[in-house]
Amino acid sequence: MMAGFGQGTRRHPRSRGRNWSRTGPDRATLGIIGVICAVAGFFVLGIILGPVAIVCGWLAMGRTWARSGPVPALVALVLGAIDMLLAIIWLAGAATPGSGLF
C-alpha cells in the first residue's frame, strides 16, 4: 500500500521550468549589470568597464548572436564596445609625443 509513496518526486525531482543551474546570476541580471558597467565606463575606467560590459552582454545573450535576444544584453554589448574603443583612442592619443596637458 505504501509502495508508491514518493515515487513521483524521484522521476521528476524539479518542478517544470526550473531545470537550469542556479549557481550564478540569470541573463536579465547580467544584462543590467552590463549596461551599468558600460554607462559607468564612459565616466571612469572605460578600459576596464568596457570589456566587463561586453562579457556581461555576451553572457546575457546566451553566447549566441540571436536577433531575438534581450535588449539590455545588446545595449550592454554595443555600449561596452564603444566605451572600450573610446578608451583605447584616448590612451593612444595620450601616449603620442607632444600632446601633453599644456
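^ that was protein a. below is b, sequence first then the C-alpha cells
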Amino acid sequence: MRTVFMFPVVDRAETVACLDQHLAGGDGSWTFAERVYVVIDDEETGCLFRDWEPDEVALLEAALGHHPTWAVQVDISGRIDGTAEVCDLAALLLRRGGVAFDDYSKHAWTLQEIESGAEIEGLRFFDFRAYYERHHRPTA
C-alpha cells in the first residue's frame, strides 16, 4: 500500500462534504476509482505524524504557515498504478490551496507542481517508479 497525505486549506467540514459529494462511501471512509481508499486522519485521535520525521513536519508547517491537526490520507493499492487517481484527488482537494506529501520525496507538493509535472530532486509527485529505480537498482 502506498500513501499520500493531502492537507487542504479549506476546513475539515468542507473537505468531508467534498469527499461525500465526489467519492463513494462516507461516514469517514471513502473509496475512489479502483482500490484507492480515503480517510481523514487526525493528530489527536488518529495516527497522523506518528511516523513522520521532524524535518518533514517542519517542511509541512513552513509550506502551510501553520501546524495542521488533520489530513486526508489516501492509500493506493499496489495492484494498480494509481497515479491518475491520486492526481485527480489532488485536483479536487487542493484546488483552493494546500499541499500533498507522498511516500517518495520530502517535499510539500502544491497543485500547480503536481499538474505541471514539476520535478523536485529528480522526482515528480507520486513518482514511485523513479524512486524504485533510484533505490533498488541492481549493483554491478
